[in-house]
Design goal:
The protein is of the alpha/beta class and about 240 residues long. Helix content is about 35%, strand content about 30%. The protein contains seven helices and ten strands. The strands form two sheets. A five-stranded mixed beta sheet has the order 3-2-1-4-5, sandwiched between helices. The chain has a five-stranded mixed beta sheet with strand order 8-7-6-9-10. α1 packs across α2. The longest helix has 18 residues. The protein is globular, with a radius of gyration of 18 Å.
């Protein structure tokens, strides 16, 4: 099985090719960029470069996995449009991977409670709460948009050590360590594991694919969880009219 994985849901743009046999799987290629360029400038050129480097026949892809949200509205639209376009052109199914699950899978196999946090602005984070049973991701709390204080309340009864990762860590680390999670055993993922990686999206997608969790390109829609700022401002304007 060969999976093309895409993640442009956050600050990072990432493309990977993951191959899986009956027992083992491996990442054949991964291209990840965390730089001040829009994903519309980077995602397709990255895919083209990966394809050239490994002499990839796109017809050999069995499915296209995409980090489907939540996250940046623009980034999600770019990733979704890219995945849908490839799926339609190649007549391949899509695998809809929740962004927070893909991010949590960076820490596959840990015995800690995994809590990815993405900065959702307006005092909120996109988050979920997970643990691993071997290499199987177990969802304790599905992905959501909540305040960091509310997240702290959800984590108060957790007895295991909690490990945080994601672009929300630099924003909320101090308040988590010194106030919200004070007295709890917490840690933070190292730099090489604390941002979105398409290889993790692809690895998780293998399990999804084997479980039959696929969709057509026409069916795919991103998971925004919240309305966009533009939509919110429009509603506010209409409410004042």
């Amino acid at each position: 099985m060969r999976i093309l994985a895409l993640d442009s849901s956050g600050l990072v743009a990432s493309v990977a090719i993951v191959e899986a046999g009956p027992v083992e799987q491996e990442t054949i290629a991964e291209y990840t960029v965390n730089y001040k360029k829009t994903h519309s400038q980077t995602l397709l050129p990255m895919l083209d470069e990966v394809a050239k480097m490994i002499e990839l026949d796109m017809e050999s892809i069995d499915a296209i996995a995409v980090a489907a949200g939540p996250g940046s509205f623009t980034g999600l639209r770019i990733g979704s449009a890219t995945a849908k376009g490839l799926g339609l052109a190649l007549k391949k199914p899509l695998i809809h991977i929740p962004t927070l699950e893909g991010l949590a899978y960076n820490l596959c196999g840990t015995d800690k409670i995994v809590c990815p946090i993405m900065d959702a602005r307006r005092g909120q984070v996109y988050t979920g709460i997970y643990e691993f049973d071997g290499d199987e991701l177990v969802i304790l709390e599905d992905q959501m948009a909540i305040s960091v204080e509310k997240l702290g309340e959800k984590l108060q009864n957790v007895e295991k050590e909690i490990i945080f990762l994601g672009d929300g860590v630099p924003v909320f680390r101090d308040v988590l360590e010194n106030r919200i999670m004070s007295g709890k055993k917490v840690s933070f993922a190292p730099a090489n594991m604390n941002r979105q990686r398409a290889a993790s999206v692809g690895a998780l997608a293998v399990a999804y694919y084997r479980a039959g969790k696929i969709e057509t390109a026409a069916e795919h829609q991103p998971d925004y969880l919240r309305v966009s700022q533009a939509e919110r401002e429009r509603k506010e304007r209409l409410g004042h009219d």
